[in-house]
């Protein structure tokens, strides 16, 4: 038997697939052919009912995935029994035979990077699109930041963090002509190891001028689920979408340093994104009915996540006509696409529930005229002196994920409040509720905030240890109070700024509790504080659609990126925690049902530096794919 088709079933019991229509009882609709009464069912009503049934099936699949990939004290989500190092995926996608155009390295010809903290007040004057500024955008967002080496092991780090440093996120630029890059509009894949662009296709003039303001371009993001599933199994779909959020925030911050604004073009659907990035050329992956192991090169396809419009800050308000934009993107299918994707692993494991859920969470095209520009809202300030004088470039390129926390570093409560002010979506509100995402970098997202933060405070000087809650959408406050434990106090702590909706719930030492909830990891208890990100969950999915499921994780990733940068900006460190016991977290808060769900954890504190690990420059790096 040819190895390509030799897929070995793994010994896991699976429930019947939710996409079997027989599992959903159909409502019988009487049709009276001779009746002319108003109760007669019309074709439009039948179409509407079929659409509702379809949406119910999609939502059921997403909820099934979320439930089945929860960790508990007695059982972890399904994954590999060990790491298959021989088949660890190559972290660097390349399109073999496509033209490779080098980008510039620091110092750049017109190098100037503003102070990190200044960007939360106002954006600098926008720079023009050029070879240099495009180079800076990628260098400060998605490039390599260093190489690490110890013993016989060498591996790379990137500006954008990733669960397990596995980097499932790929990036593309869709751009008008740029001197010394391309004399025509082009689509290129970003190759971070080389800090170069692989030109995949060129397109005729007129595309950008038809739809977007002058000096605009697009960044496309996609995910290779296999890279994350290799280590984490079925829970990998969650982690891939955390990483998309981190990448969105990384691009948004780097763009802000150049005076550019960023917005997710969330009216586009899966098919438009696939065409835009040239991903429809990947072979279609036929999802097996259960987890299987074997040689499946088609599992290395890229799932298109989103397109980010990058445009000069301060431009006049403009709208995107998504129907016309979709028509324009449809022409990309006929472009001359260059390059063949490299193979990442010889053998694979397919965790089928990941791919069924990705199918269920595909977003359709939303045909409306959508406004893109929102007014820039500065963030609140209480302790500007907490920040070190790092430029944006210094900060984003020195960001690291702490492996351990030291267990003794403390922070002042004013620093704590300042960090949380930069975590608020609406910025400084002057008495208005936080709802809309107007502040950097949350303004890149196209929906109102749906993610809150439960805070386990351990070592904040002047603030009692205990459990706190940051309400990031104040329209949810009453529902949160009703959903959580009746004994919670919900009082603002001493010295808390008026426009920071932070509440003390309960006092007490919660170090052991936070450690247990985060899969017994000391790092959750040894920092200054740890965070559980709580999403307004099932009501959001029912109201907007199953396609909001990954977007909730994106929002947690954006929030996590801010926590990373804020921690480094005040001289400490942070780490994202994907492993936590879902329902025990809910039990601590008193949450029942699926109205609110914990999606991501984080810890902030003083890092322990392993001096056995040697740091090497990002460029030029060693000739290894790691």
TrEMBL record:
Organism domain of life: Eukaryota
InterPro entries: Nitroreductase (IPR029479), Nitroreductase-like (IPR000415)
Pfam families: Nitroreductase
Domain Nitroreductase: 126-280
GO molecular function, one term: oxidoreductase activity
Protein name (database record): Nitroreductase domain-containing protein
Organism: Nicotiana attenuata (Coyote tobacco)
